[in-house]
């Protein structure tokens, strides 16, 4: 682990607090390749050495029909033999969890007393708490759940309930997920994250990119010997501080025999500079990420990567609105504009990224055509005109929660309000499963 000393200290402090009777959760986020899984594994190993019972699970991108509680089912899979040998095995809780796919492996789903949906949900959550508190009775319990960006809302809600219901039990939950889980107010983890933050039981660690001196340490650790400064700078420049890209760059040049050791340090062969290209694994990773984008977005990006276009990047923008009646943007907004000319046609591509209000980049395109107006002047004087008479300082508005028009379209088409105002998440095919769940709950 290089460059993550602060994050390791934060996790260690959260574990000490849990041992002292303050259960909590730590959410590790960051872009793909930032080292979330590696930090999670490093922390899990260290806490196991410190005496904790560490249970690990993970979510998978399985699409529709995936087991709802897969991360927790994976984490609990190995504990059932020990619980069955206990003086008072949690048979009732095991039966309830088995009905949700979290029980002992091979256990058929039992027939349980039918309850209203809210009652069944509470029965399941209490069963999970019962099992976890039994596990935490003898020594601290740590749940380490990876790739939670793929998880359904249910595991996130279960974690929030578990942390709150644990009382003073020595419990710590470590979660790793890509940074987009923090971008959407309607995504799967939104309610759980908000609840844990309200209770002051969640610490969020966002893994940034490595500084150059940390890249130098990573290169030396990967090679087993110091690296020449020019090699470390090359890796840092090609990877832009992303640990995964840095290691893939090193693996690529090593596998192709482009490294040489001289004067006690690893260097690039002189002829290597003309033979450098983006490693295959990085190309595959980027290609898979791009494949998840909608077709119009991919086409716009394809148009925006020409070598002869004008690129304008603007940051430090004052917080305002994307349009007069549109969504707001924060002062963390970054706008990248591409201007591409094809003969008499100019294409303008605007890509706006805002980690606060936008769950994914917003892309707008427009085209302009050169028109021959001879010597005529297309400019004209602008005059102000009053569209709707009102007092000078009158701003039309509704108080929060009092806008009578918000549900008009949802009621007209018979869809939940979250579905028609849910942002980018609702545009993907995977949202259909969540929509069916919401419609079935009504």
Averaging pLDDT over every residue, what do you get?
82
Enumerate the spans where pLDDT stays under 50 for 5 or more consecutive residues. none
The structure class reads: alpha/beta
Determine the CATH topology of the largest domain. Rossmann fold
The 3D shape can be described as: globular
- The strand count comes to 13
Q: Beta fraction of the residues? A: 15-25%
Main sheet: which strands, in order across? 2-3-4-1-5
Distance between the termini: 48 Å
CATH structural class of the largest domain: Alpha Beta
Helix/strand order, N-terminal first: HEHEHHHHEHEHEHHHEEHHEEEEEEHHH
Per DSSP, the total helix count is 16
State the fourth-level CATH superfamily of the largest domain: P-loop containing nucleotide triphosphate hydrolases
Cα Rg: 27 Å
Give the count of structural domains. 4
Secondary structure elements and their pairing?
Elements: H1 5-19, E1 24-30, H2 36-49, E2 53-58, H3 70-76, H4 80-84, H5 91-99, H6 117-135, E3 141-146, H7 153-165, E4 171-176, H8 190-198, E5 202-207, H9 212-223, H10 229-239, H11 243-255, E6 259-262, E7 265-268, H12 280-291, H13 295-303, E8 310-314, E9 320-321, E10 328-329, E11 334-342, E12 345-353, E13 362-369, H14 408-413, H15 417-420, H16 431-441
Parallel strand pairs: 1-4, 1-5, 2-3, 3-4
Antiparallel strand pairs: 6-7, 8-11, 9-10, 11-12, 12-13
């Amino acid at each position: 682990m290089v460059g993550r000393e602060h994050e390791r200290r934060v996790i260690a402090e959260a574990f000490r607090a849990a041992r002292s009777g303050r259960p909590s959760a730590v959410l590790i986020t960051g872009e793909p390749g930032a080292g979330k899984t590696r930090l999670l594994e490093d922390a899990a190993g260290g806490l196991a050495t410190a005496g904790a019972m560490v249970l690990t699970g993970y979510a998978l991108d399985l699409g529709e029909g995936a087991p709802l509680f897969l991360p927790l089912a994976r984490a609990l899979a190995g504990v059932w033999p020990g619980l069955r040998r206990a003086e008072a095995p949690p048979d009732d809780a095991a039966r309830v969890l088995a009905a949700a796919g979290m029980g002992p492996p091979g256990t058929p789903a039992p027939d349980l007393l039918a309850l209203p949906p809210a009652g069944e949900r509470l029965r399941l959550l209490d069963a999970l708490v019962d099992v976890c508190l039994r596990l935490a009775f003898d020594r601290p319990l740590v749940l380490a759940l990876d790739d939670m960006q793929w998880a359904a809302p249910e595991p996130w809600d279960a974690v929030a309930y578990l942390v709150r219901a644990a009382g003073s039990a020595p419990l710590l939950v470590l979660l790793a997920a890509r940074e987009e889980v923090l971008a959407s107010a309607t995504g799967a983890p939104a309610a759980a994250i908000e609840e844990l933050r309200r209770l002051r039981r969640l610490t969020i660690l966002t893994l940034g990119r490595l500084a150059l001196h940390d890249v130098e340490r990573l290169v030396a650790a990967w090679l087993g010997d110091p690296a020449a400064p020019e090699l470390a700078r090359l890796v840092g420049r090609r990877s832009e501080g992303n640990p995964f890209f840095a290691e893939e760059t090193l693996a690529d040049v090593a596998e192709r025999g482009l490294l040489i050791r001289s004067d006690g340090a690893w260097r690039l062969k002189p002829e290597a500079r003309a033979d450098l290209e983006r490693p295959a694994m990085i190309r595959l990773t980027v290609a898979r990420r791009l494949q998840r984008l909608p077709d119009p977005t991919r086409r716009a990006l394809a148009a925006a990567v020409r070598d002869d276009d004008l690129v304008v990047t603007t940051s430090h923008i004052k917080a305002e609105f994307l349009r007069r009646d549109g969504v707001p943007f924060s002062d963390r907004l970054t706008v990248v504009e591409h201007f591409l000319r094809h003969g008499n046609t100019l294409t303008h591509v605007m890509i706006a990224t805002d980690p606060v209000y936008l769950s994914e980049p917003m892309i707008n395109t427009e085209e302009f055509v050169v028109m021959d107006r001879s010597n005529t002047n297309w400019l004209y004087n602008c005059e102000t005109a009053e569209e709707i008479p009102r007092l000078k300082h009158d701003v039309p508005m509704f108080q929060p929660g009092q806008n009578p028009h918000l549900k008009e379209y949802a009621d007209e088409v018979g869809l939940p309000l979250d579905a028609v105002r849910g942002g980018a998440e609702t545009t993907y095919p995977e949202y259909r499963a969540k929509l069916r769940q919401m419609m079935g709950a009504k």
